[in-house]
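Why run this: before we spend reagent on co-expression, it is cheaper to look at a predicted model of the complex and decide which construct boundaries make sense. The entries below are exactly what would go into the expression plan.
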Amino acid sequence: MRSIVEATVTLFDAEAASIALYESALDQLVFAVAAGEQGQGVIGLAIAPDQGIAGYVFTTGQALALSEVERDARFGRGAAEATGYVPRSIVAVPLIDEQGTMGVLEVLDKRSSATFSLRDIELAGVFARQATVAIRASRVERDTVTLLRTSLASLAGSDDQATVERVVQLATADLDGDDDDRLWAIVDRVARLRQADPGELELLAEILEVVARRAERRAEQRRRSGRARAAR
Amino acid sequence: MSDEALPAWSEPFVAERRMDLERQRPLGDLDRAPLFDGADGAGVTVAIIDSGVERDHPAVGGRLIRSVVIELGEDDDEPTVRPDPEALDVVGHGTACAGIIHALAPAADLISVRVLGPDNRGKGAIFAAGLEWAIGEGATVVNLSLSSRSEAMFPIFHDLADRAYFANCLLVSAANNVQGASYPSLFAAVVSVAAHDVADPWTWFYNPAPPVEFGAYGVDVEVAWKGGGRVVATGNSFAAPHIAGLAALIRSRHPAATPFEVKTILAATANRPG
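The model came back. Tokens follow.
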């Protein structure tokens, strides 16, 4: 989820991007991850699920983009001031799958433009979908581990917790998926791209470019730290 | 229909794709003048199902005649309708829609139906109850700049869309900005709207390939917002009220026009693509 938010900031060249997740126990939207120079202050911020732009997008499932009219910024001010950063423009898209809405992805202040376009909304939607899949998978994993541990513990009784833990670890070791699974997932998607139109292919190229840039940057960082170690 | 199979709804209306909308029009090019000239929305009631409408916002022009809020009852079962005498907008979005409609149809009466529930449970039910109430109150045009993606709500909204159509009530609904199915915006009885980027409320396009049939101004629109303010907004949410405003004009000039005829007039008077 963190890498998706970081990729979002890079692609939009934005000041910040963040994900707020709905916590049903609190009945609040809680900002769970953020990236970008101005993003960190928002983590942990909780807002009512029907308030402000994030609340509207969460409640209605309707994505939107807003920017201030000169000298008259009214949106999201309360929450924004709590984070120490008041944005000039914002795009917010819901994290939705067939099981419902789980939160909102927000991108603040694209550096190259004063407003977000429809294409930006669409692009943010692509990232939101990836985040939704990742979050749902991690929730399923967490729930599976919890369920397995609870069931086994109740079967085994309280005196054999170490065995229960070993069985849980063995049984859930593959939940993260291995490289083969990932490779096949990519192959599957590439095959389905035969039906993509030029606009979709352009979008894909942009996303691949972001990932490639990140990979290059990381490789460069690794080379530098390798050289630094060799010099010592 | 899987999400992957669906295009972004605004795609047919972007400048480089619009020429694909060109076609032989069965009614030719209808002249807008006899259909719109002199119309101001008088006698038409437009319900705005949204985050509320700020009654005193200058952009609403004092035309908000009624304001209600839909809430879940004590046991979270049946949604209830209660008056909202303060006429609050908890976000600003509903006021934005009201301002767009009022700018086009200044004499139309506006009703606000606030459907953003205080929690996540039953929000589809709250939205449906708001729509049902607006139809029952005799609204002639209903603006829905929101929709539900819940499969469970499909039959309920489908029934309400039919009921509105037979009750001579025109539903104008924003297509969801993010790809995928959403209700009631994709039903045939509804006027479904996505955004184009021509900065003109009087420019709209007809797309003969459903489900999203109309494109209206929805990119960088200066709109009214919470607290008497204004913001610049982008989204299909802001395209739908432009079509709702135009529909209010047609219904005020031609009170006998049915939803089907209003939709036909909007298609036959749409701008030529380009």
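Chain A touches chain B through 44 residues (CB under 8 Å). Residues 177-181 of chain A have pLDDT under 50 and may be disordered. Bring this page to Monday's planning discussion.
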